[in-house]
């Protein structure tokens, strides 16, 4: 698990920290999951290696991960929820996207967990849920937790999302991410949009606009 959320980084040693966590949390779902892996004959020396095991044995292990994720959610053990969300952060794992979108909207979901969910959705990149992503990013109440979903719109590169991204350029919480996402399209018609930000007071905004224009110019050559 990501033990840095529990212990200071300067004192962090994965195996030692995991042992300390297991001792203080004997009912840990992460420990139970590890025992399940061991019973299946899968070997790992640290929890970070579990992520590779899930990737290698997706068909068998993803349903197990989802089961423990749901248990951690029910018990409201958020740091363990985050661990299982990391396990589900696999490109192409489309079947779990509806569950993640549902949990993103859930009023019981805390802000940090929403960030983990959005990061997971970004990695999975299930394009068929574009309309759901656009609804999320247009909901300003989600604040910065929309940032990874905004970037996801850039990776999907669906023209339907362009007008949404342009509207987000006035939203301080996601302005930078919307500009980055638009840059992914490499669309010459967006040149005026990027030109507009060349004189931004924010260095990072100016740099993103310059890079986007450079990509467009390269295509035109």
Quick take:
Helices cover 63% and strands 0% of the residues. With 221 residues, it is an all-alpha fold. The chain has one domain.
Describe the structure.
- The chain has 13 helices and no strands.
- The chain has 221 residues and is mainly alpha-helical.
- The protein has one domain.
Radius of gyration: 20 Å
Helix coverage percent: 55-70%
- Biggest sheet record: none
SSE arrangement, N to C? HHHHHHHHHHHHH
Task: Please provide the count of β strands.
Answer: 0
Low-confidence stretches: 1-12
Overall shape: it is: elongated
**Mean pLDDT metric:** 91
What count of structural domains? 1
Ordered list of secondary-structure elements with their pairings:
Blueprint: H1 14-24, H2 29-39, H3 48-56, H4 58-75, H5 78-87, H6 97-105, H7 111-124, H8 130-137, H9 147-156, H10 162-167, H11 175-183, H12 191-196, H13 203-220
Keywords:
mainly alpha; 63% helix; disordered N terminus
């Amino acid at each position: 698990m990501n033990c840095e959320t529990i212990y200071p980084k300067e004192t962090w040693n994965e195996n030692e920290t995991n042992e300390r966590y297991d001792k203080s949390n004997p009912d840990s779902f992460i420990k139970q999951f590890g025992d399940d892996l061991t019973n299946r004959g899968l070997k790992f020396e640290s929890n970070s290696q579990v992520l590779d095991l899930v990737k290698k044995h997706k068909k068998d292990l993803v349903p197990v991960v989802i089961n423990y994720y749901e248990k951690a959610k029910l018990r409201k053990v958020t740091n363990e929820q985050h661990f299982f969300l990391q396990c589900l952060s696999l490109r192409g794992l489309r079947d779990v996207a509806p569950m993640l979108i549902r949990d993103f909207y859930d009023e019981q979901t805390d802000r940090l967990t929403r960030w983990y969910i959005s990061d997971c959705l970004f990695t999975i990149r299930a394009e068929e849920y574009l309309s759901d992503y656009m609804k999320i990013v247009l909901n300003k109440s989600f604040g910065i937790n929309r940032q990874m979903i905004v970037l996801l719109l850039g990776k999907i590169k669906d023209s339907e999302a362009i007008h949404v991204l342009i509207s987000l350029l006035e939203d301080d919480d996601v302005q930078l991410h919307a500009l980055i996402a638009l840059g992914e399209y490499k669309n010459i018609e967006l040149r005026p949009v990027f030109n507009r930000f060349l004189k931004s007071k924010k260095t990072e905004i100016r740099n993103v606009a310059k890079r986007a224009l450079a990509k467009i110019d390269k295509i035109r050559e």
